[in-house]
Amino acid sequence: MDYLAKQFELALLAIDRVKAEELLRQAIEKENSIECIEKLIIPALTSIGEGWENDSVALSQVYMSGRICEEIIDTVLPPADSRKIDTPLIAITTLEDYHFLGKRIIYSTLKACGIELTDYGRLDNNELVEKVISDNIKILLISILMLPSALQVKRVCKQLKEKNTRIKIIVGGAPFRFDRQLWKEVGADATGANSSEAIKIVNNMIEGLS
Ligand code: B12
User: Which residues, listed in sequence order, are joined to residue 93 by a DSSP beta bridge?
Assistant: First the structure.
């Protein structure tokens, strides 16, 4: 898997979509698709991001790597499970953030486990607060990759608490992985580092709410 992961990263840097998809498919023959996404796509994009920080990778390569992953991820993510679990209303969003890959993975993984949820796309603070209240959402997942957006979550939690909603907020994404206490500082109820943690947290919350 390590060899495939390195080749995958090189294919992204060479902007070779065909090769990248072929490598991901080869990996899926060995392990399930979510494991492969966690082991190939995330390390490759993290390393490419680091390359950008130390000037060894161009922004165009970061951009195209993200686009390629966005395109191929849809072809390998598991389909929704038709046996739906009876769940409270759940939504997922990014907050003033155009990094969509993490959200897409979490959304599809939860759906694949039979957990029904709405994808709000990308919203700003006020739109998000209005929407979750009018939709009567009980569990809100927020995916964030930029630190300024992570700090916006604090405002969302504060506004929702001021309006006396009893909504549960789960946050995730790079800033929360780098600083394992940040979720508490922004007033969220939980955080998860990846899709398998997201499934566990959501299931626990569903149990707690029922
Ligand atoms: C690809 C990428 C892009 C692509 C995004 C493509 C896309 N459609 O998503 C493009 C090129 C568009 C982009 C743009 C920018 N980017 Co960018 N980008 C990245 C990069 C390299 C990888 C991100 C990624 O997709 N990872 C793969 C996904 C699958 O991982 P993930 O999101 O972390 O999700 C996993 C977990 O975190 C978790 N998770 C995620 N969400 C949730 C939610 C919940 C509830 C739970 C439980 C779990 C969970 O589960 C997921 C699966 O395991 C990162 C580097 C990095 N180290 O993250 C920089 C990075 C995030 N970008 C950064 C920056 C600065 C930018 C730009 C401002 C650059 C610029 N100057 O224009 C713009 C801003 C765009 C915007 N306003 O949002 C910075 C942010 C720095 C900071 N501290 O704020 C980073 C960290 C790079 C860096 N080191 O400087 N970027």
Answer: 142
Residues with Cβ < 8 Å from 46, sequence gap 6 or more?
none
131 ligand 1 Cβ < 6 A: no
Coil/strand/helix, residue 43 = helix
Are the CB atoms for 155 and 161 separated by under 8 Å?
A: no
Question: 84 phi and psi, to 5 degrees?
Answer: -75, 140
The SS3 of residue 15 is: coil
CB atoms within 10 A of CB 180: 10
The pTM assigned to this predicted structure is 0.85
pLDDT tens for 103-130 read 988 888 888 777 889 999 999 999 999 9
Asked if 128 and 153 count as a contact pair (C-beta separation under 8 A), the reply is: no
Cβ atoms < 10 Å from Cβ of 108:
22
Residues in the chain: 210
The CA distance from 123 to 150, in Å, is: 13
CB 68 within 8 A of CB 9: no
8-to-12, 40, 71, 123, 164 alpha-carbon distances in Å: 6, 7, 15, 32, 47
- Residue to mutate, 9, 46, 145, 189, ligand 1, most ligand atoms under 8 Å from C-beta: 145
For ligand 1, atom 53: residue with the closest CA: 194
Tell me the C-alpha distance between 114 and 158, whole Å: 31
